[in-house]
Amino acid sequence: MKSIITYIYTALALLILSVNAQAQADWTELGGLEKPSLLPIELTLWTVDCAPTVNTLRWQTATETRNDYFTLERSFDGVSFATIAQIDGAGTSSQIQNYVYQDAINDEQTTYYRLSQTDNDGVSQEFEVIATNCQFAYQIYTIGYHSIVADFYSDTVSVYSFAVYDLHGNRIAALSGTAEEGFNQIEIDNLNLSPSIYVAELKHNGIVQTKKLYLSR
Known about the structure:
With 217 residues, the chain is mainly beta. The chain has three domains: 1-34; 37-133, Sandwich (Immunoglobulin-like); 137-217, Sandwich (Immunoglobulin-like), CATH 2.60.40. It is 13% helix and 56% strand. It contains one helix and 14 strands. The chain has one helix at 2-30; strands at 41-51, 54-75, 82-93, 97-104, 111-119, 124-126, 130-132, 138-143, 147-154, 158-165, 171-179, 182-188, 197-204, 207-214. The strands form three sheets. Strands 1, 2, 3, 4, 5, 6 and 7 form a seven-stranded antiparallel sheet that branches. It is flat, with a radius of gyration of 27 Å. The N and C termini lie far apart (72 Å).
């Protein structure tokens, strides 16, 4: 009787070892459990601003991981998109990367843009669709930690003021001047900003435009 029990235990042990060996083989073949993958890029800015004959697209990344290229698409109805450009990515980077593309277009109707990213494995990720209308366009954005820029369109020669505040309402920097008829770009530079949230305020033609600016590490 004892020998039969010993035989049964031995057979069960061998069976368990066999199952474990097969499971390990399957694990190895599949590369084990997939680790949560990092996002290919950390997109911190994706904007469009325009002048009468050109739309300027800007985007910024805080990090990129095996990023091969970006694809820009345009649409006039927000549904059917056509590719207008392919821009090389930075590969793998932990530094802020700034990208600019100018779409020469002579049309005041609303234009939609879509940005997507493709990594070295051919896997793509799409980002939100943005839209612009040149009749009402303005844009405020940062360039790294040293500059804050405002792009806007003016239908007359007029005075503007541009200021940047911290979260406590303290004014960090400001400038004023005269906007020309058409497209204008003004810049507050030589800043030494820290990672935080800032508020930019543009006053022009009796209109006040404000925007929160998020700077991450």
